[in-house]
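Board notes (copied after class):
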Amino acid sequence: MEKFFKLKEHGTSVKTEVIAGVTTFFAMAYIIFVNPNYLSATGMDPTAVMVATCLSAAIGTLLTAFIANVPFAQAPGMGLNAFFAFTLCGSMGYTWEQALTVVLISGILFLAITVSPLRSKIIAAIPACLKDAISVGIGLFIAFIGLLNAGIVTAVSGEPGFTDMGAITKGPALLALIGLLITGVLIAHKVKAAIFIGIIITTVIGIPMGITAMPESMTMSNIGNIGLTAFHLDFGGVMSLGFLPLITAVVSFFIVDCFDTVGTLLGTAGNAGMLDKDGNLPGGDRALIADAIATCVGACLGTSTVTTFVESSTGIQEGGRTGLASVVTGLLFLVCVLLAPIAGIVPGAATAPALIIVGVYMMMGAAKINWGDFETALPCFLTISMMPFAYSISDGIGFGFISYAVIKVCRGKAKEVPVLVYILSVIFIAMYILDAQI
């Protein structure tokens, strides 16, 4: 284990990696139940989707561990599953079999790029100031997820994009606030594994509050149901709506998957001091390959796009530094193929404090940005603000790239902008134009 994962070289231990892996798993385990709920709206069998979710998450996370040796976990992405269910299969009119085929094509495109020299150049091309901004933006984004999951803030009905204060004196919101204070005190006292301990204590407190629901039985999932979705691809039907809708869907899935992953890798690793002297994550380009393969595997099994989860930052904050943490997370997803109720024991209110606290840590990157230089300040601000406001890491990166390139050109500093930034800016603009046609 030491030889393969290089634990001493990364300043970690088996115990630390195990705790980190378990912490990451509980922070993202909600996807096991949420993803089937979204995709079943298309007519897909919910049990089959749940099994596909667990298997694709396990495969993607284990690939990340063994190919890249980094502590990141994968699963079908939130937002991408909504796009799959309500845009592709809803407003656009694709069948779920055709939509899975679109996901597979986008995964193959992503894989083709990641196995080419472009995979490392994409990460290296991001300006240093935007890398810092990505870290801060992800911090706000993940804290916002925590606040929403706990019900501390709630979406205002009928007013998309607006939130309001939740009922914080009772229920999950109160439990989350209690957990936030407990975890904060533990961290202030420099207690090791404070975030993990905070999740456990908050879960226990939730039992008498009626929020932590103990499973009535540990029944095994019907694994055989996966046959209802696995390899139900429809290559002949993806052109049924025309070429432009197909290209729009494929490009949208590819861009979001690619830059959600790039942003998560750079932002989270940068905050944890895992980047090298050039601002790149060792093994990060190989993590992109694992992500692309997982997307292809997920589509074949019967789920929407698999991507690197920003909740991996909770395990990294607990000290996870190698793929061993990902092995633990991946194995737990495999266990849930059989015993899904295990993942449901820890309520969202118990993991929300971990997400909020990670957001606090990631705000430190804001101090590295030169806010006195407006050429830097505006792109960085747009990168940071668009992630939580648009609820999308990739949109934050897109707005940052486009504004950075435009300002530099208008200031007569076009040569300071990497060629790949220009190319990616054009791709983002094209994606926004295509999306407007849906």
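Comment from the instructor: DSSP finds 18 helices and four strands in the chain. Residues 243-271 form the longest helix (29 residues).
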